[in-house]
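Replying to the earlier thread about multi-chain prediction with a worked example.

Input:
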Amino acid sequence: MSSVILDEMREAVIQGNKDKATNAAKKALEAKISPMDAITNGLAKGVREIGDKFGEGEVFLVELMAAAKAMKAGMSVLLPEIKASKTKVKSAGKLVIATVQGDIHSIGKDIVATMMEAHGFEVANLGEDVPVDVILKNVQDQRPDILGLSSLITSSMPVQRKVIEELKAAGLRDKVKVIIGGAPTTDKWAKDIGADGWAGDAVTAVALAVRLLSSKPV
Amino acid sequence: MFELLTRNEVYAIHMAAMEVLERTGILIQHEEALRILKDAGATIDQKKKVAHIPEYLVKEAVRKTPSRHLFRAINPKFNILIGDGNSYFTNAFGAQCTYDFSTGQRRASTLKDLEDFTLLSDYFPAVDYIKPNIIPQEVPQDTLQQTMALSMFKNSEKHLSFLALTLEGFKDVIEMAKLYAGGEEEFLRHPSIIDTGLNNVPPLKYTANIIDIALECAKYKIPFDISTGALASASGPITLAGMVVQGVAENHAVLVLTELVGPGTPMLWGSCATIMDQRHGTAAYGSPENGLIHAAFCQVAHYYGIPYYGAAGIIDSKVPDAQAAYENTMNVLNATLAGVDVVHDAVYGIVETGITASYEMFAISNEICEAVKRIARGMKVSKETLAVDLIDKVGHDSNYLTSDEGLEFTRKHLLEEYWIPSLTDRTSRPDWEAKGSKDMLQRAREKVKKILDTHKVAPLGKDVEEKMRNIIKQRAKKRP
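Result:
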């Protein structure tokens, strides 16, 4: 029964069980369940449930992170089928996120990336100490809806400004919403450098991303 | 006064930290530092930039680290001997927002806030030395450290600890310190007229500019504090013991390097670590777990015979309320009873986990910290204080308030035995009502206003200030 398999995928994600998620995803493929169905009503459904519970303070961050990992594991099994069927998987949006050059802090950004995934965003996490031209190239190639820039030390904050300037120079600025974050950054700094928004924590970052995209003209 | 761990547990942490240093090593993005460590006997993975440091290097470095050292102040009455057994308190570090004192509005912090908070730090008796309370948001990046330094030099006579972000900025601050000390020769003789503080990137990493600054300190023997900023379950293990192990290993990498380059450089070694709240993904500094980390970490520092520096007293509450008061009290008290040599962020005039400065909270926290200092002073037991003869004299028929002997004894010992609060209400109800039924927050406001209106600090020499401003001007000129 396809509903049983979908439920298995959902459960696996809720439990944060990678092995169970991959097994269920394999079963889904064998049962010829469409990848869209498998994701929407199986994996993503589980993540959304955990995400909602986290928002209500009923579930710990560690469980959210584990759920996201389980979903990723299941997705990797479905990926070949997604490519083959040329299905465009509906997502809440696409995020490219990076800690800017000169800065090796990662955790805050990684929590934002995971929470965005939990909310149905497609996320490309470029890592830390990412050169400006690499960020530009990823914006050009991946065409994300949102670019997230993290800076955890004051000396790397100017690079956030530089990225925005380079986007303008490359004619890409109006094609992507830029949000920034990191301990020394502020809302005022975001406005000063021409970013579209600032968030001081992961929960706010997700809300900001959703808000920015909902007001985006189609 | 209290020891959290047994001697075996402390030793177990030491051994675990040595294993981390040897087996996992520390990533140091600094070629010269890696070379220095290699020459001294560490094993370097050049490709990964990881230094595997053997235990004997730690033992040698600890032997060269002063067990006590003098922090000098421009007014020598404020000199303090770190490691003398007292717990010294600093004010809070680093607020980028401030609750405006007049309007109550939350706004970006300014240079004026830094001046005011430094002046308050100079006044508040519980503050033993001063950290940069505010990061002024309107000052350009390239002159931030220098401008902050000038503001602090001008507004206090106590020992000052400066913000060091870049080598270039720190070098300018050192030049300003030379002027402050009365000349290059004087500064070289007594570099501990200033100090600074450094952090790593947990887990187990150091960036180039931090190492640059450490090496500069080692060159002059300028004291600095090295402390981990890890968050349990995020950048460190969720287990508190594991947090201490990781922090010990991280700190030792810099201790070893510093003492190789500048043997005898005074160091404060410790922790600004805490737990990450798993419900929200936020840092929880006002947590009981924070205090436990300090208590254990401090024992490890004392096992090595070096002074312990811990950020205990940081407030998570977003306003100066009951939560703020309990968070500050719980951790400052815990740290002090555990024998922490420097309780950083003790007199904590910031709320919202280091983000928003609050003038009122500073006054309230000073009161809390004065009470804690009274506890630290303990109880004097001597023939005199046991008072057996007096008790007999007063006997059954008299008392200590009306008898001559009682009064004389009280006058003799009052100020030794009692702490005199300035912000705590212990009046009778009619008295309290007559004075306006004010709560602590209101009384704090009034006190801060009075201090800002009346407290004065000896000014810098005219040419000293001018020369310091010139250093800032020259740096600004180099702006592209």
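Chain A has two domains: 2-84, 93-214.

Feel free to reuse this layout for your own posts.
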